[in-house]
TrEMBL record:
Residues 131-333 form the O-methyltransferase C-terminal domain. SUPFAM superfamilies: S-adenosyl-L-methionine-dependent methyltransferases (SSF53335), Winged helix' DNA-binding domain (SSF46785). Keywords: Methyltransferase, S-adenosyl-L-methionine, Transferase. GO terms for biological process: methylation. It comes from the Eukaryota. This is O-methyltransferase domain-containing protein. GO terms for molecular function: O-methyltransferase activity; protein dimerization activity. It comes from Imshaugia aleurites. The active site is at 282 (proton acceptor). Pfam families: Dimerisation (PF08100), Methyltransf_2 (PF00891). PROSITE patterns: SAM_OMT_II.
Length: 343
């Protein structure tokens, strides 16, 4: 039932978007597209000032400009300009000349992973997006595949791949990892259609320190926690693997083992029931994907271990805005592409 409701919601949104674009004049189209980066900048400013947090919970009431200035410590005249602009595209609601209240957008960015997403997308990924046109001009508009030579490198004037850069800049790595925990919000969980009990529990050899599930490159462990929430009695060990700088940022991973691990090195856990890679392979070109998979395969037990890949794939037509933009983001930051399938 939930899937049918969500499908209907997407269809209604598509019709509403088509109607909006149909009614739009050329001048309105120009203003919407060319000034859209300012929306991102204003959200970023609002996150810095914690405007959304100050308004959160006030959807049935308003706060005055003076109240918000006291909380944010911002100059009232400046704050008024920012709030008016936020209200213009629905991030907040202006109820009178100097009073404002929360909206759904406002409540969205009170969630830490999503506010951290605004920081990462504006401060890091967005810089690469700005340089993408220039980079493609300089490379003759050829399909790029070098993760050390992409728009990201041009933007930050570095020859390091983005993940090496993040490790050397902990504040960026922290907001990146936090943002990654939000990427599955509002999307169907793989556990809703994958028969985990049939595929993994049945036939599981629960002897000694047997490992049920290894989340390779699993960030803060949100996938393992979702598995444990749905299957609290799942037998065997659950192991979360990621780079040392990510693992040391984890403050809570109940009943989960954490392990510092680089998936370009031999897999340390051998003979596990399942090795799970979510949103890992689209970060790397084919050569390195093969290496990651070979490292994993070498640790698997024949006729027992299973490899689970949860990954984005683009339809050859009719893909969503989010999916296609993710593909272009991969180009800008990593010189990689999301897989394309005929649908």
């Amino acid at each position: 039932m939930a899937l049918l409701v969500d499908k209907a919601r997407h269809q209604i949104r598509a019709v509403a978007q088509w109607l909006n674009l149909t009614l739009e004049t050329p001048g309105e189209t120009q203003a919407r597209i060319l000034y859209q980066p300012l929306e991102t900048a204003l959200i970023r400013i609002a996150v810095d000032l914690r405007i959304f947090n100050a308004l959160s919970g006030e959807r049935n009431g308003s706060k005055s400009l003076d109240e918000l200035a006291a909380v944010t410590k911002a100059d009232p005249a400046l704050l008024a300009r920012i709030l008016r602009s936020l209200a213009a595209f629905g991030a907040v609601r202006q109820t009178s000349a100097n009073e404002f209240k929360a909206t759904g957008i406002c409540e969205t960015f009170t969630q830490l992973p999503l506010s951290d997403g605004s920081k990462f997308c504006f401060d890091v990924a967005g810089m690469a997006w700005q340089y993408l046109p220039e980079f493609l001009r300089k490379t003759g508009h050829k399909e790029p595949f070098d993760g050390r030579n992409c728009a990201f490198n041009m933007a930050f004037r570095t020859d390091e791949p983005i993940f090496d850069f993040l490790i050397k800049n902990p504040k960026f790595l922290e907001v990146f990892n936090s943002y990654m925990t939000s990427r599955r919000q509002g999307r169907q969980s793989w556990l809703e259609f994958f028969p985990l009990e049939r595929e993994l529990v049945t036939g599981f050899s629960n002897k000694g320190n047997a490992v049920m599930f290894v989340d390779v490159g699993g960030g803060y462990g949100q996938e393992i926690q979702e598995v444990k929430k749905r299957y609290p009695d799942l037998p065997g060990r659950m192991i979360l693997q990621d780079l040392p700088d990510t693992i040391k940022q984890i403050t809570a991973a109940p009943n989960t083992e954490t392990m510092a691990y680089d998936f370009f090195t031999p897999q340390l856990i051998r003979g596990a029931r399942a090795y799970y890679l979510r949103n890992v392979l689209h970060d790397w070109p084919d050569t390195q994907c093969r290496e990651i998979l070979q490292r994993t395969a070498s640790a698997m037990k024949k006729d027992y271990s299973k490899l689970l890949i949860n990954e984005w794939c683009l339809r050859d037509r009719g893909s969503s805005v989010y999916a296609t933009f993710l593909d272009i983001n991969m180009m800008a930051d990593l010189q990689n592409l999301v897989g394309i399938i005929t649908w």
